[in-house]
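Troubleshooting log. The previous structure file for this entry was overwritten by mistake, so regenerating from the original sequence record. Sequence copied from the archived sheet and checked twice against the printout by T.R.
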Amino acid sequence: MLAAEITGCGDPARTIRIVEDAPMPRPRVGELLVRVEASSVNPLDCRRRRGYGRTVLGVMGAGRIPYIPGRDCVGVVEAIGPAVRRFRPGDRVWAAQSPARPGTQAAYVVVPATDAAPAPTSLSAIEAAAVPYAALSAWSALVGRGGLGPGRSAGKRVAILGAAGGIGTIAIQLAVAWGAKVAATCRGAGAVAALQALGADPVLDSGQGDPCLRLAGYDVVLDTIGGETTTRALRMVRPGGRLVTLITPVLPLTDRLGLPAGLAASAACGLADRVRAGITGGRRLVWAFVRPDGRVLGTLAEMADRGELRPLVAEIYPLARLAEAHARWEAGGVIGKIVIEVSPGGRATRPG
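Regenerated output below.
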């Protein structure tokens, strides 16, 4: 079958190839075989292509080269494995795929049925492909670690740092839909205008000064940047509030120090972060990790069909130009998501 493959570590032009003879996957118990219409460029794939996370992913059984990239997809169920009751061939679904499993940038992919949900009827395949992994990341941070969600967010003050990417643009819309007052940071006038259109107010351009010095008193701050930003962002959190970061030291430290020493160093970093937060007024600093979840994707599909979730598609590339798409993401300045059209017609196809 047609598929993209990562063949090593380095620049996308050298390490991404398109093959026509990749093995055709077969669904096992509890799995779906999905004919992929569209996927998206995920930052994890771009960083992994340069060696990021190789230690932990190797332990998870995902360290082999070559491998198929892609962490989410929209497509049509081609076949089902034993014990699948919820889906039938012909159903359009969307799904996110664990990094431990083969990626989605191929003509066909096998996904656990529990990690898939019916795709929203209001979005084309191209539009929908911009959502699953980014939205699950935002959900993990805001709901799982931030304590927000329907019925728990009205009147809350939420700030999202580095909000112009896929996670940030979805996080803004989730928090707004739940009744929160949302501030955001980004870089560039175009990004500011895009985030304002999603309902964020205020939106601060980080190129015009440190936003962490100008925003304060927030119940939840979502950090998608990491590094020194995480430390500075603590001052934005009200006493008793939470700073949730999606950028943790676990993978970089295990890559540099090896698994045992890296995990120990990560635990020490986590303890230091909690101590630092605790001595600054009872604030909490917590790490968020994403995992596939079909139930959450079902809720997100309902939100999209109610008009509460509008994906921002920055650019569309065919699968044959995946290397260019990776290079475009690495160049920076992407607002929303870069989408990969795997099968022709995905940009115009809406079910129903």
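Residues 259-278 form the longest helix (20 residues). Archived copy saved in two places this time.
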